[in-house]
Amino acid sequence: MTIVDKSINEVSSKGSKRGGWPKRATHLVPGGLRWILPGFILSVGLIYYSIIYSGYLSFFEWGGGRGAMTPVGFDNYAQAFTDPTFWTALRNTFVYFFAVFGVQVAGGVLFAAALHSKIYLSNLYKVIIVIPVVVAPATMAQAHIQVWQTDGVLNTILSSLGFESLVQSWIGQSSTSLLVITLVGCWGAVGFGFILFYAAMAQIDPEMLEAARMDGAGNLLILWSVVLPSLRPVTVSLAILNFITALRLFDNVWLITQGGPAGSSEFLGTIIYSETAGTQRNLGYAAALSMILLVIAVSTAVAIQLRGREKVLSVKGQRKRQAKRAQKEETNV
Amino acid sequence: MFDIRSYRQQIILQITVTIAVIPFLIPIYAMVSRSLDGRGWGNYLAVLEVPGFARFFLNSAIIAGASILIVYFATLMAAFGFSKLRVRNKEVLFWMMMAALTLPEVVLIAPLYTTAVQLGMLGTFWSVILPIAALQIPFAVLLTRGYVDGIPDALFEAARLDGANTWRMFWSILVPMAKPMAVAIVVLILIFAWNAYLLPKVFLINDDMGVVTLLPEFFKRQYNDDTPKVLAAAVITAIPTVVAYIALQRHFERGLAGGAIK
Question: DSSP 3-state assignment of A60?
Answer without folding.
Answer: strand
